[in-house]
Design goal:
The chain contains nine helices and no strands. The protein is mostly helical and 252 residues long. Helix 1 (2-24) crosses helix 2 (57-93), helix 2 packs parallel to helix 5 and helix 2 runs parallel beside helix 6 (147-161). The N and C termini lie far apart (53 Å). 30% of the residues are buried.
Length: 252
């Protein structure tokens, strides 16, 4: 298990370093257009070819990966902060605050947040700058994605509230604030880290789905979702070609 973790960490670190370093190089500008090479294949000038307007695909992949790997952790951090405030703290305090927090969490989990994201994103002006659209997209993901980790943190915090060392510290006169910050919060760190690593791919895929629908990061700023959207026409063309070939074989 440790070997798999090290391999996964090495792969993620390599991708992050390549995206950060590569996107900073002048030869991989995602806005520069090569009008002489439109939808060109791989070459020495464009290692992965160009898109429909002559932009370097490798440069756009590097910039899109850097964007997702930069903003997705920020959104996950915001989500876990809200999960701690609405989950761990009320779960430790108990009573009316815990019941109220449960109601709020259930309400958040009952909302179809993907449709809510679509509604909020559609309300933004069409002339929103690309970086602002990217920040708003991941901000919405962080504000709406804390329901599940909040429920998990509440259950863990409730279990810690009834543990022996917390009861002993409370009997010694330790305040609730110190109990939460000194005794409970460190024991919640493994759960927080697990939820953080779970939230990262969820937010990246959610942004990809929004960008695939044309409601994520605005052009010309690339993202993983917008890159997938560019491949939609290619996928439809390939599927259509396969269907024609299959139908031709059946006729023959």
């Amino acid at each position: 298990m440790k070997t798999l973790r090290r391999i996964a960490l090495a792969v993620v670190s390599t991708i992050a370093i390549l995206s950060i370093v590569g996107s900073a190089l002048p030869g991989f500008d995602y806005t520069q257009q090569d009008r002489l090479h439109i939808s060109a294949g791989p070459s020495t000038d464009h290692w992965l070819g160009t898109d429909a307007v002559g932009r370097d695909r490798l440069g756009r992949i590097l910039h899109g990966t850097r964007l997702s790997l930069t903003l997705a952790p920020a959104a996950a951090g915001l989500s876990l902060l809200l999960a701690f405030l609405f989950g761990a703290a009320p779960g430790f305090v108990g009573g009316y605050s815990e019941r109220a927090a449960k109601t709020v969490i259930d309400l958040m989990l009952s909302i179809p947040w993907l449709f809510l994201l679509l509604m909020v994103r559609c309300l933004l002006p069409l002339n929103t700058s690309p970086i602002v659209s990217a920040m708003i997209t991941f901000l919405m993901l962080g504000l709406l994605g804390w329901g599940v980790p909040a429920r998990i943190l509440m259950a863990r915090s409730r279990a810690l509230r009834e543990s022996e060392f917390v009861l002993q510290a409370r009997a010694m006169g330790v305040s609730r604030r110190r109990l939460l910050s000194v005794h409970v919060a460190p024991n919640l760190c493994p759960v927080l880290m697990a939820q953080f690593w779970i939230a990262l791919p969820v937010f990246i895929l959610a942004e990809a789905n929004l960008s695939l629908l044309g409601l994520g990061v605005a052009e010309p700023l690339p993202s993983l979702g917008s890159l997938l959207r560019e491949m939609e026409a290619v996928s439809l063309l390939v599927v259509g070609s396969l269907q024609v070939a299959f139908h031709h074989n059946e006729v023959n």
